[in-house]
Amino acid sequence: MAPSGSLPPLNWLRAFEAAARLMSFTQAGRELGVTQSAISQNVRLLEAQLGQRLFHRLPHRLELTESGKAYLPAVQDGFERIGAGTREVFGPRPDQQVTVRTTPAFASLWLAPRLPELLAAEQDLRLRVISTVWDLEFESGGADLEIRYGDGQWPGVECERLTEDRIFPVAGPATATRLAADPAALAGERLLHTVGFRVTWPEWLHEAGLADRVDGGAGDHFDGLLLPLQLAERDCGVALARTSMAADRLADGRLAAPLAPALETEEAFFAVWPANATLSDDAARVLAWLRRWAAYACG
Fold this sequence. Notes:
The protein is of the alpha/beta class and 299 residues long. It has 11 helices and 12 strands. The chain has 3 domains: 81 residues, Orthogonal Bundle (Arc Repressor Mutant, subunit A), CATH 1.10.10; 102 residues, D-Maltodextrin-Binding Protein, domain 2; 99 residues, D-Maltodextrin-Binding Protein, domain 2 (3-Layer(aba) Sandwich). A 5-stranded mixed beta sheet has the order 4-3-5-12-6. Strands 9-8-10-7-11 form a 5-stranded mixed beta sheet, with helices on both faces. β8, α8 and β9 form a beta-alpha-beta unit.
């Protein structure tokens, strides 16, 4: 047998697997798109490396040797594992999937609760969701659609607004109870900041009339909204939430909104795709689904 750690070339293994499965060098060649002699040569090279014959070459037919019978399941299992690993890590072929790029917060807080509806209705749809904090160019990431937060003013893209957001403080039940009783107690709470948004704690505190009692720069800063909301619901601080991101947690009681006001903002989540691009049929189905949710949320 081959020395430990010596892996035969993949084309030799493919030739052996096809010939053993079809019991024909000729049919194996047709399947792999090579000649019968190429299959025969690759099998002989494999046998030479292994030091064992894999086939009995009988008149008009092939027959596996005992070594060939023992080796075939291992080779087939290896190919299956490679295929499964490739599908798991990289997903289906690019032409069989829709790639959607968005922020971790939107993926977790907005997409995840709603995706079961889409996948149940469109069972042949194959999605690949990429989470990233910062906007990237379509050319660098290969996304069919992006979901971005901002004012919708991005060059080189088409976009449609998905959410209508207002901004307000949220906290876990215990913290919310304290703040509802005494808004000034916010001065003693940990403020959880999300960088990159226009409306931040200083703006909200000014509108609430608390800027002279609460330090709007104090607290912890995060580059996304997901972690601040998770900390807030565990009574580890107070976060500024967007309507679309906090709605489900407010509805089920994990978060509460103890303080007014809720500030209007022109920023929102938008579906974005390259300008002048023709979306694939599957990408268009995903966009139509996003539009239906947008009409529900914004209507």
